[in-house]
Write a structure and sequence with these properties.
The protein has about 290 residues and is α+β, with helices and mostly antiparallel strands. The protein has one domain: Chloramphenicol acetyltransferase-like domain (Chloramphenicol Acetyltransferase), CATH 3.30.559.10. It contains nine helices and eleven strands. A hairpin with a 2-residue loop joins strand 5 and strand 6.
C-alpha cells in the first residue's frame, strides 16, 4: 500500500499522466503530493544578481504594449535594487503632533503671500531634520564601501525626493542647518519646479546627508522608504491624520503626521533610531524653537 498522501484528483491526474506517486515522492523527499508536484520540470530559481529567469514573453498570455525606461529611470532602478539587496534596512515608525506648525502656517499666510510663496509643512521638516543630523552625528555619516570606516560629515545637506514624469529626482538643499524657514521654503519650491522641468543640474543632486520622501500631498498611512546610499537613513512623511489623544479624561483631537525612518542597520541600531525620531517629533511639535 502506498504511503503517499494525495487527493483523489491528484491520484487521477497521476494515473492519466503515467506518474508513479511513490517514485515522485522519493524524488521530492516528501510524503504529501499535490497536482503541481506531478511535473518533472523543476521551476527555475534565482541566484543573486541573476534576473534572466524574469525574461518572459508576456504577449503569449494576452495583448501588451511596451514603454522604454528613460536612462535616468534605469540608473535609479539599478541603484535602488542594489541598495535594497545589499543594505540591511530597518524602518522605525512614529508620528508627530503638527498642531503648532499648522497654526504658524495659518498665522504667516499673509506674509507668505507677500513674499510670493506658499509656506508648506515640508520646510519645517527640513529644519527639523537638519537639527537632528547635528544632534546625532552617526546619522550624518556614510559607511565606506568595505564597511570598515565611518565618514562623519561636518555639513548638513538635505535631499528632497521629487516625483516627476521622467522619474524620481532628488535635488539637494545645501547647508540646511544654516538657513532660515523662508529661505528653505523658497529653495524647496525652486528645486521642485525645476525638477519637474528637467532643469536641475547634476551638481544640484549629489552629496545629500539624508533624504526626505514626502507623500503627504498624495496620501497613505505609511511606507518603507529605501535608503539611498551612501546615505545611512531616509525619512518618509505621509498624509496628516486626526488622532484622538487623551488629556486625562478629556479627548483632544490632534493632527498627527506619520513618520517612517528607514536606516542602515550596519551603523544605526534600533535604540538610536527611536531616540532620533523622538527628538525629531519634539522639534515638529514645538517649531518655534527651530524658527527662533
Amino acid at each position: 500500500m502506498s504511503d503517499v498522501i494525495a487527493s483523489p484528483s491528484t491520484r487521477r491526474k497521476a494515473l492519466e499522466q503515467g506518474v508513479d506517486l511513490n517514485t515522485r515522492a522519493k524524488e521530492l523527499g516528501r510524503t504529501t503530493l499535490g497536482p503541481e508536484d506531478l511535473s518533472s520540470v523543476v521551476a527555475p530559481t534565482a541566484s543573486a544578481g541573476d534576473t534572466s529567469y524574469w525574461d518572459v514573453d508576456h504577449s503569449a498570455y494576452g495583448p501588451v504594449t511596451e514603454e522604454p525606461m528613460s536612462r535616468f529611470a534605469q540608473v535609479a532602478a539599478r541603484n535602488l535594487g542594489a541598495a535594497n539587496a545589499l543594505i540591511p534596512q530597518v524602518t522605525h515608525h512614529d508620528r508627530a503632533d503638527i498642531s503648532a506648525i499648522e497654526a504658524l502656517r495659518k498665522a504667516w499666510r499673509a506674509e507668505a503671500q507677500a513674499r510670493g510663496m506658499k509656506l508648506t509643512a515640508l520646510a519645517f521638516h527640513v529644519m527639523a531634520l537638519a537639527r537632528c543630523l547635528r544632534d546625532f552625528p552617526r546619522f550624518n555619516a556614510s559607511l565606506s564601501p568595505d564597511g570598515k570606516t565611518l565618514v562623519l560629515k561636518d555639513y548638513v545637506h538635505i535631499g528632497i525626493a521629487v516625483d516627476t514624469p521622467h522619474g524620481l529626482m532628488v535635488p539637494v538643499i545645501r547647508n540646511a542647518d544654516h538657513k532660515g524657514l523662508w529661505q528653505i521654503s523658497a529653495e524647496i519650491a525652486d528645486l521642485a519646479t525645476r525638477a519637474q522641468a528637467r532643469k536641475i543640474k547634476p551638481d544640484e543632486m549629489g552629496g545629500a546627508c539624508m533624504t526626505i520622501s514626502n507623500l503627504g500631498g498624495i496620501g497613505g498611512l505609511g511606507f518603507t522608504p529605501i535608503v539611498n546610499p551612501p546615505e545611512l537613513a531616509i525619512l518618509g512623511v505621509t498624509r496628516t491624520e486626526t488622532v484622538t489623544l487623551w488629556d486625562g479624561d478629556i479627548p483632544r483631537p490632534t493632527p498627527m503626521v506619520p513618520l517612517d525612518l528607514s536606516y542602515d542597520h550596519r551603523v544605526i541600531n534600533g535604540a538610536e533610531a527611536a531616540r532620533y525620531t523622538a527628538r525629531y517629533t519634539g522639534y515638529i511639535a514645538l517649531p518655534q524653537q527651530m524658527v527662533i
